[in-house]
Structures are given as structure tokens and as C-alpha cells.
Amino acid sequence: MDSNKPLSARAIISAKKKAVFRFLLLQIFLTIFASLGIFYIFSGLYGYSFLLGALTSILPSFYMAWRVFGYKGTRPAKDVVRLFYKGEAGKLIMTALLLSLVFLLIKPLATGAFFAGFGLAILSHWLSPFVLKH
Q1: What is the DSSP string of 35-94?
Q2: Which residue from 3, 13, 20, 92 has the fewest beta carbons nearer than 10 Å?
Q3: Higher model confidence: residue 22 or residue 110?
Q4: Contacts of 122 (CB under 8 A, 6+ apart)
Q5: Residue 76 burial class via C-beta count within 10 angstroms: exposed 0-12, middle 13-18, buried 19 and up
Q6: In this structure, what are the phi and psi dihedrals at residue 5, rounded to the nearest 5 degrees?
Q7: Which pTM was predicted?
Q8: What is the pLDDT of residue 95?
Q9: Which carries the bigger pLDDT value, residue 11 or residue 90?
């Protein structure tokens, strides 16, 4: 017999936290499989360039998720908004740093494959509403 009792704030946050991290892990697994496919079809250069591009987008997203959902329990709305702003600022800075480091340190790099991985990782966030539903 199901109860129509509303979920507690803690239960809602826990469910969203699991869904967000599940989506990010799915992104990483799909990126690795796509990179392996590109590696075998084209070459290692294109495979690792694609992987680096995707990770340059995904790793800052992990940081953002950790900033927002990395605590236990509930917080006042004002604190949650502050966490979102700090997380987004950190995500932007981390993305800029990773982009810079890749272009400075990784030679050779297939820029087309790199930006394909970066762009597809960003566009994959459009799939999150389907994955985050529970």
C-alpha cells in the first residue's frame, strides 16, 4: 500500500544528489567508450584528443556537483544559492585552466577532435533531464 506522504527535504536532496552523480558517471563512461572507438577507427591522436576535450568539460562539472551536493543534510536557501554561485565560479575558472593547460602542455593535439569531445560533453547536459528523473 503506497503512501502519498510527501518526501522530506533530506530525501529529496539525497535522491537528486545520487541522480546528478549517476549522470556524471554515465558521461565519463560514454566518453571513454567513444574515445576508444575513435582511437580504433581513426588513431590514438584523435582518441586521446577527444577524451581530453570531454574531460575538460566533465571534471569541472564534478567540481560543481561536489560544491553543491558535497554536504550532508539540508541548508537554508541562502546558503544553497551561495554554494551554487561559488560552484559555478569555480567551474568556470577550472574549465579555463584546463583548456589552457591542455593547449600549453599536450603536443600533438588534434584540435578538431578535442573540441568535438568538449562540445559533445557540454551538449550531453541536454540529456540530463531524462537521466535525472527517478
Answers
A1: HHHHHHHT-HHHHHHHHHHHHHHHHHHHHHHHHHH-SSS---HHHHHHHHHHHHHHHHHH
A2: 3
A3: 110
A4: 57
A5: exposed
A6: -70, 130
A7: 0.82
A8: 96
A9: 90
Distances (CA, A) of 38 to 7, 42, 100, 123, 128: 44, 6, 24, 18, 24
Question: What is the rounded distance in angstroms from the CA atom of residue 101 to the CA atom of residue 7?
Answer: 44
- The three three-digit cell numbers of residue 98, written as one number: 584546463
Give me the long-range contacts of 8-12 (CB less than 8 A, separation at least 24): 9/74, 10/73, 10/74
Residue 68's nearest CA partner among 128, 9, 21, 124 is 21
Q: Which residue has the cell 553543491?
A: 68
- Omega before 108 within 30 of 0, i.e. cis: yes
Residue 133 has pLDDT above 70, yes or no: no
38-64 per-position pLDDT tens digit: 999 999 999 999 999 999 999 998 898
Residue with cell 550531453: 124
Q: Is it the case that residue 2 has pLDDT exceeding 60?
A: no
